[in-house]
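Aim 2, interim progress: modelling of the zinc ion-bound target.
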Amino acid sequence: MKKNLEVPIETRIGNALNQIEILDIHTHLYAPSMGKMLLWGIDELLVYHYLVAEAFRWMNIPYSKFFALSKSEQAQYIWNELFLHHSPISESCRGVITTLNMLGLDPRKRDLELIRKWYAERSLEEHVDETFALAGLKAVVMTNSPFDREETSYWEKGLQQDPRFLTALRIDPLLLDYGNTIAYLREKGYNVAEALTQEVRDELFRFLSDWADKLNPLYLMVSLPPEFSYQVETSRHKMLSKVILPFCRERGLPFAMMCGVTRAVNPQLCLAGDSVGLSSITSVENLCRNFPENRFLVTALSRENQHSLCVAARKFRNLHPFGCWWFTNIPTLMDEISTLRFELLGLSFTAQHSDARVLDQIIYKWTHFKESLILTLSEKYSALEASGWEISDEEISRDLQDILGRNFEQFCSKESSEKSS
Ligand SMILES: [Zn+2]
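Predicted structure of the complex, ligand included:
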């Protein structure tokens, strides 16, 4: 075993992090071949919905007037309010600074026009390469919706696949708003109706199969409101238990549930108007128990759900917790959630996903998470060494690869151990 006792554990973890390639298992990025759908650049960074919400804490402009402005005008408002009139100490604001700085720009000049000029001369191809390299990523998983007309037009044309942009099939309207989705499905040639008869289920299966064939997704996914529960039989349960979960079983795909988002608590804020609520981890346990042949990837938006989610994962090997999602993607909670998971689950989870909407964001989201991971993991390794264990550099690298992609890959490719053959 190669010993490395002279070098502080934080440095050894940092060095290992610089050498491994991360798989970012959930983002809202799109492949460059999908044209304008892939967002990048300074104006996109500034009008990110996290920053819009923060800027409205200061801005007096009416919501509708702000959203009627052009993107660069909105960006200017946000820059003035959050970067010039006040110090940008929030996590999302600091993220912009980290990103610009790592790209070699000097944010201290506070010169938005200069930054815009730099971006105007940049090619997307070079930008994808550099952002991936700075974030240390080998690939990102997109969020692909068969219900988004803009997106489906690309897939229907036949898309050139980029191995750095992997796919996940998002089916929220099917599970959460089936009644209003019927017309769309019929328009697309699927003979579906309200009642989930065998014929309708076959048609929904055909719809999912067609998209799974087109996309080759790593998993199916949905984001769930806090009130979602799996305790009593409802129509959503029927869609889940009779269509979605059997389809996942047939295809060997995990089902990802992102639990605890309350949509549009302030509709005037548009995309920035969603909030958080406490979810039912009991329902997650019910699903894991009732469908042992399915595999569930789960993240929770509420801080208060994190402990019970870890406990649930101790009970069910078909449950894989992942990431510090959205409002939990802040240093205080990243430290807390990783530590909670290390103490209850060891290294058997996926520590983070970026949720990036703008390509450039992978730089700061991963850099800030690595800062947190160096702190939390070095504390665990130090405690372990104090207890009489010794960690090699190879083992550090192995552990990091596990929690930053390999566990997920193995979970996705796993044959169900519960299959009754
Ligand atoms: Zn997301």
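The pocket of zinc ion is lined by residues 26, 28, 355 (CB under 6 Å). The longest strand covers residues 137-141.
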